[in-house]
Inverse folding.
């Protein structure tokens, strides 16, 4: 009777949690669409044109703005507008800049650059002159009063500094890390009060059970899956929440940064190698039941396959997220490119509808990419810890 009661409580909790999760996802989707709508009507902020107050109007300016959006930056720029005096104003907030220069460590807020990204704004700190070009910070040479660019638009009288700044991506990762910490802490505390979680735990529990029962157990096996649940849950929620934040006008593109996806894939690679048992290594370097000449031929291929697994992990995540952002921004830009054919109202309407439709797909992709990365990681781990029966 006790077992039946426990099973009934577990099933009831799961059903309630799934309903809560569904409602929460609907709320997140609505908020994301609202933010996207605001971003569309807000217009571009970071154009390079000097003739129209910095507006993004031409195809070349749109392409430049898309590249700027996909790259990391030292501040948040929500939107821009031109005031009555023809001055371009940016709405957002700065982040701390921490750089190591020829004269030691220098710190200041990114607002000192006044949203300038072409090296025209010079920041003097402690005897050094700093400029920002394409989101990279440079130190001017001694005696230089302005940056000189060569034909490839590279600084010829300045050099890059060691940049330890809290960029937009770093801020996003810290934010998601904090949300995960407090969310799972709440879930852990709720279990001390009873079998049914409360608060944030009611939303997290069904997803935790999903990762455990649909990803970890089938791929790693009943005997070993518990050992890797912490890593798999961290990776799943970390990627998923970051992908959702990337759909807001805050401009997060963390999983679209190659350094971040490489770091995540590298962690999976290290866990797989250090968790591999003797059967795993034997099947790579000296496969049982295979003629010796074939073992010599297949061993390098297996080693190459071992190295290509993390490559496929980080390239898939990076490419899909970057492509999604680029397509969403490209469709949003239709309201500028189609103004002559359909007028401002018509072009904006077409762009708005298409962007909302694509954003709905991107909400699904945000979850799908987190699922794929976690599933493949568990699959690779399962292959490493699997115990083979050679009889």
């Amino acid at each position: 009777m006790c077992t039946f009661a426990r099973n009934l409580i577990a099933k009831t909790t799961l059903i309630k949690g799934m309903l809560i999760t569904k409602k929460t996802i609907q709320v997140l989707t609505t908020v994301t669409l609202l933010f996207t709508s605001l971003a569309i009507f807000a217009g571009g902020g970071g154009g390079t044109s000097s003739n129209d107050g910095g507006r993004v109007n031409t195809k070349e300016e749109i392409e430049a703005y898309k590249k700027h959006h996909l790259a990391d930056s030292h501040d948040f720029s929500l939107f821009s507008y031109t005031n009555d005096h023809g001055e371009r104003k940016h709405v957002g907030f700065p982040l701390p800049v921490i750089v190591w220069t020829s004269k030691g460590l220098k710190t200041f807020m990114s607002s000192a650059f006044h949203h300038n990204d072409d090296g025209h704004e010079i920041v003097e700190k402690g005897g050094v002159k700093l400029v920002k070009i394409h989101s990279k910070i440079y130190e001017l040479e001694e005696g230089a009063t302005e940056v000189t660019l060569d034909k490839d638009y590279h600084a010829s009288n300045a050099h890059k500094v060691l940049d330890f700044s809290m960029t937009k991506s770093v801020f996003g990762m810290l934010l998601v890390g904090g949300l995960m910490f407090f969310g799972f802490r709440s879930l852990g505390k709720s279990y001390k009060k009873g079998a049914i979680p409360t608060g944030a735990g009611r939303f997290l529990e069904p997803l935790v059970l999903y990762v455990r029962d649909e990803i970890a157990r089938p791929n790693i096996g009943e005997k070993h899956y518990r050992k890797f649940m912490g890593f798999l849950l961290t990776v799943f929620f970390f990627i998923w929440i970051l992908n959702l934040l990337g759909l807001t006008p805050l401009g997060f593109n963390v999983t679209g940064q190659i350094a971040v996806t490489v770091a995540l894939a590298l962690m999976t690679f290290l866990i797989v190698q250090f968790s591999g048992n003797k059967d795993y290594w034997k099947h790579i370097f000296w496969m049982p039941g295979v003629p010796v000449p074939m073992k010599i031929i297949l061993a390098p291929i297996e080693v190459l396959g071992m190295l290509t697994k993390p490559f496929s992990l980080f390239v898939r995540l990076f490419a899909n997220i970057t492509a999604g952002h680029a397509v969403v921004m490209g469709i949003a830009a239709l309201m500028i490119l189609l103004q002559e054919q359909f007028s401002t109202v018509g072009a904006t309407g077409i762009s708005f509808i298409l962007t909302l439709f694509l954003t709905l797909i991107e909400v699904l992709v945000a979850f799908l990419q987190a699922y794929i990365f976690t599933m493949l990681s568990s699959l690779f781990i399962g292959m490493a810890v699997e115990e083979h029966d050679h009889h």
Observations:
- The longest helix spans residues 339-385.
- The radius of gyration is 26 Å.
- The longest strand covers residues 75-82.
- Strands lie at 75-82, 88-94, 96-101, 104-109, 123-125, 128-133, 136-140, 158-160, 162-163.
